[in-house]
Amino acid sequence: MKKERALDKSDFEQLSEFRYQMRRFERFSEQAAQAEGITPLQYLLLLHVKGYPGRTWATIGELAERLQAQHHGVVALVSRCEAHGLVERRVSERDRRQVEVHLLAHGEQLLERLAELHRAELRSLDGAFRIPQIDL
């Protein structure tokens, strides 16, 4: 069995810097979403719908996994986004038990603006998100 080496000061510094940069980006994201009149979670929902691999929609269950949230909480979040005209629910044509969440034009436009801001912010953090080289 391989013996683990003890973490040293530089390991903690790397982890601290990584977490600091993640939190800075997260705070930027929160403020950008709020400036557009939506919550950070609403922004993430829009992002995960648009960014779901292989298609332009996602199910409630898939969004719950992406958001690491409870199913019923995502149902409520989708309802709030629907009320703002950002998304709509559609019953799946392939499986009538499944509900698909689709972006509406207003949601697409809002997401496009926010994604552009996020891309610019990520570029400004170039190199800040290096994964610490810690032997685990």
Notes on the structure:
- There is one protein chain.
- By secondary structure, the protein is mainly alpha-helical.
- It has one domain (9-124): Orthogonal Bundle (Arc Repressor Mutant, subunit A).
- It is 58% helix and 10% strand.
- The protein has helices spanning 9-35, 40-50, 60-67, 71-83, 105-124, and strands at 57-59, 87-91, 99-103.
- Strands 1-3-2 form a three-stranded antiparallel β-sheet.
- Strand 2 (87-91) and strand 3 form a beta hairpin.
Shape category: globular
Give helix and strand order, one letter per element, not per position: HHEHHEEH
Strand-pairing-aware structural class: mainly alpha
How many discrete domains?
Answer: 1
Strand arrangement in the largest pleated sheet: 1-3-2
What proportion of the residues is helical, as a percent range?
Answer: 55-70%
- In total, how many beta strands? 3
Major β-sheet annotation: 3 strands, antiparallel
How many helical elements? Answer: 5
Quaternary structure of the protein: single chain
